[in-house]
Amino acid sequence: MRNRRHTLLWMKDLIDHMSRCHDQLQWAGDGATQFFLAEAMLGDLVECQRLCEQLRTAPAAPKGSAVHSTDLVMT
Hints:
Elements: H1 4-27, H2 31-57
Helix pairs in contact: 1-2
C-alpha cells in the first residue's frame, strides 16, 4: 500500500468531491445532469471503499500510534 498519509489525503479529496456533487445534485433540474452527478458519486464511493479496504488490511501501526474505533466516528 502507498503511504498512509497519501491514502488519507486521496480519500479526503474524494469525499470533498462527493460533497460538491451532492450540493450540485440538490439543484440539478434535468435528468442528464442528475445521472452524471450520481454516476460521479458512485465512482467516488467505489474508490473510497477500495481505499478503506486497503487501510483495513494494512499492517498494524506501531504500538504507540493506535487509533481507537471511537476516534473514527463522524460528527
